[in-house]
Amino acid sequence: MSDLSPNLIPAETPAPKYLSGLRTVLRDVMSRPSGAIGLSLVVFHVLLALTSPLYVPYDFKTMNSMLMLMPPSSEHWLGTDHLGRDVLTRVLLGGREALLVTGVATPIAVVWGGFMGILFGLVGGRIDEVLMRVVDAFLSLPWILKMLVLIVTFGSGIEVLIPTLAFFYGIPVIRIARAATHDVVARDFISAAKARGHGRMTIIRRELVPNVLDTLMVEGAMRWSWMLLAFSSLSFLGFGVSPPTPDWGLMIADARGFMSFAPWGVLGPVIALSSLIIGINLTADALAKALGIDRAQKAPV
Amino acid sequence: MPVLRNIDLVVRRGESVGLVGESGSGKSTLALAAMGYLKRGLQLMDGSVTFRGDDMFGQTRQQLERIRGGHLALIPQNSGQSLTPTSRIGMQLVEALKLHRKLPETAHLPKVIELLGQVRLPDPETIVSRYPHELSGGQQQRVAIAMALAGEPEALLLDEPTTGLDVTTQAHILELLRDIAAERDMAMVYVSHDLGAIARVCDRVVVMYAGEVVLQGSTRQVLTAPMHPYARGLLASIPKLSDPRLPVALDGRPPPPGGAGLGCAFVDRCAIAQERCGCERPALSPLPSGDVVRCHFPEQASQISIMGSGADPVRRAPGGDAALSLRDLSISYSRPSLLDQILRRPEAGVATVDDISVQITKGETLGLVGESGSGKSTILKSIAGLLPPVGGSVTVAGDQPLPFAVEKRGPDHLRRIQLIFQNPDDSLNPRHTIAQILEQPLRLYFGLTGAALHARSAEILDRVRLGAHYLDRLPSQLSGGEKQRVAIARAFAAEPDLVLCDEVTSALDVSVQAAVLDLLNELKQSQGTTYIFVSHDLAVVRALSDRVAVLYQGRLCEIGPAKDVYALPSHPYTEVLLGAVLEPDPDTAPTLTADDVVELSPPETGCPFQRRCPRSLGPVCASDIPPWQTSPEGHAIRCHIPLSELAPAQSLS
Questions:
Q1: Residue B319 — very low, low, confident or very high, per pLDDT cuts 50/70/90?
Q2: CA-to-CA distance for B500 and B417, rounded, in angstroms?
Q3: Cβ-defined contact of A7 to B429 (cutoff 8 Å)
Q4: Which of A168, B40, B364, B622 is the most exposed place for a label (fewest CB within 10 A)?
Q5: How many structural domains are present in chain B?
Q6: How high is the pLDDT of residue B650?
Q7: pTM exceeds 0.90, yes or no
Q8: A188 touches B at CB < 8 Å
Q9: Domains of chain A by range and CATH?
Q10: What is the chain A residue with the closest CA to B374?
Q11: Domain of B544?
Q12: How far apart (Å, rounded) are the C-alpha atoms in residues B531 and A162?
């Protein structure tokens, strides 16, 4: 109990910026260099994924034994791979699957993780303690092991990958949402609402959730980039997208063997994948700053 | 945009200079600049800082590291909390010694013990092996001071070193700083918003406003007859024990950094501003008294009153209907553990708050004072239903006793009791606009919607002297004082009978505090509201309360009409508290009769104050709960010492 808490709220310490409305947040994100670059990269990749089938120069699966591992030329700007397929075409198309899977799985992960986290945070006490230990146990297992077990059991189609990724990546969200809930619940505006006599659900909906949502938004952006990396790793290992569908992770795996004399096969997908992940991370960073959240978490790259 | 402008300040050895001003006036920035440090985003535009002949901004990083903490030490606000929690006190001091002094390894421990003794920590030999969390806030602050002294500094910079400490602790720390500065012939720069502390420690005072020095002079001159309208306004806005009237608010707020126009930065808030002030910036000019002042009309300025000539607080005569009665209220934070529940063991330990019986009449203001941990806020939370008591009863307006838990109370009872919190940053949801904040009680209690809701919200805002244009703003877009007004507006939107004010002015600047007190007084007058006003600041409580109750360790020590509680006879604890209050008057010295030990739990038997009481009678205080002794005026003191003896002994001390 701090009856005698500091007498001054010094004007020197910048107050956390809480912004109303999505538009103000977006404007703030765009006004930061990291946000402007990051968001442009993300938007670019999403647009590319949506429209690339309309203008790719070649068919992604046409093999040509005459054109195996050709260096970049005027016909094949990024060269060809070991099966003679056009690398540029495959790079342009290679993010579609990844973005689709992670784009669907991320919101699901944030929603279920956020819901459980808020619930645990509110329930508190021993139930919360026990459940959080279960969460810890889950988190202590290497993710790739967990994923592989499920994929080996159920197969590697989209219908398996989306729920699997959403499930595993929702678990760390539980922790974050629970911590954020604990922080908010301790604040006086919750006590004030209680003392006024508002119902439990009203307090959760009106007072708690809007304040936890900021953290969840940033967390969601972070989870997205982690998930992309996981998806590409799975493809790399051969458990994600099945050939001949183009995918960056798969392309890197395929071209890896020829890297010493045909580096263009790796370069294209690597640049594409890392620019997307960097873009998401920069956006998450700017978003966190715009929402006034201190994010000490490390980026996955 | 310059944040600080044209500052010329020389501090000599053995001299102690106070920097005062509202938050945002640049006083902390100036103190840090004296160390050659600028906060991020700031840069040196012009001028220099010289310490012992060296230009601080011309030093290399290594040179600066050697000077800082060595010859020039900083004691920041809450420095006690900046001690490393995982390292023993002794180790931390040894590290400071190694860094700045070349002593043989064997001399470290004796030196550390010597330093701890110099800051008057009891039993330095054992403190050495303690961890910071095992010490009280005041003790931590002493360790921080010892650490600053480790480098044998020639100058100390103190940035609000006692903010957040209890009155008695604060008084002790200030006495310590005074003595240390005198013993070591150190220069001190003391940054504070608290003129009482400044009066006690400083020889010279520099008043800052909007990044400029507006007045500089001897402490006596500045505190008794300042020649600048801002300094006068500041003095008038401080509640003083010697002046029971409401303090006068200093309206308006300072211009944002670099936002001052052509003229005097204070022109918008100045009572004697003339045409010339708006277009011509006054220069610092010397006065016959030796002060320097930045004002065109210092003669007229000296006509402005520095006393609390604000509205007389509305005082209610005793008697009338009860608005609230608390009977034998006891509250405990400890919940029985699972094992205790299974074994059905009786609850162990003493209740945090116990045996509180108070009756408050309609329209009365009851002040509740005590140090941190005395249970003031706990009692308010219990009345509001947020913390169910373990025993006793809470009754509103002679009704049936209220259910303890807020969920079980009827809407009408909920509406009639409203709570205002200490820190509006915490009590207003940062994601809600002011309109959404005010809507909640209006919808909940009165079912207002649409145009009626909007009109009512605007009307309520108007009542707290904020306009309807605030409705669409977010709390972060408001100043501290404005935010607290919104919190007050939200409470009054419920048209309550009883408003519980929990340290509502503690997070505000003095000038803003005066405005909030004035507003509360006005609302009391127009609405006939009953207040319970909790504060650690005895002068603030005095300015607003009809009756005052003094709490120690969750037990009532004394209760009675404000003027009687603040006069003789007093409970020994009240006497200690009043003695430690620092007034902005260079002629008063605090009388420190009890040490500033912080007790964490009340004793199991006897008087709660027995362990610190300077007038303890011995075994009887430890074994028996003292009886209430009530005077005909309704002034009650709970002490074994007879009233007749409590009075004359005091006039001697």
A1: low
A2: 7
A3: no
A4: B40
A5: 2
A6: 46
A7: no
A8: yes
A9: 21-54+77-290 (1.10.3720.10)
A10: A3
A11: 322-567
A12: 58
